[in-house]
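Below is the record:
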Amino acid sequence: MTVFRIGEAAELLGVSADTVRRWVDAGRLLAGRDEHGHRLIDGADLAAFVRAQGTEPDDRSETSSARNRLRGIVTAVVRDTVMAQVDIQAGPFRLVSLMSREAVDELDLQVGSVAVAVIKSTTVVVERSTPAGVRGRTSS
């Protein structure tokens, strides 16, 4: 079984450790304690919590088959005469989209705008890796 300390869970979720502590204290997220009194969150419980957070309704989710939506802030817009590149920072993730300049102009995308990156892909590569600074523990 994989378990995470509060700080590790916070890094995975893209929130502060204080936020995770508040969720635990409010009973929204289950946590136990190790032999030293440190709070530990079971990996399966953390996954269930994240899954529950992702089920909140989206105003377009019923009109689109795409389910992968990442809301963020536009950090860069580079236009030429025909195409444009838009960079979005969604939590810890940087997303880059290439689209027509006309689409960027119609959406009025500017640095500082809030935007939603909608991702529909036929291929998703999954790697098993531990992000930098997040160890996760396997307990027996």
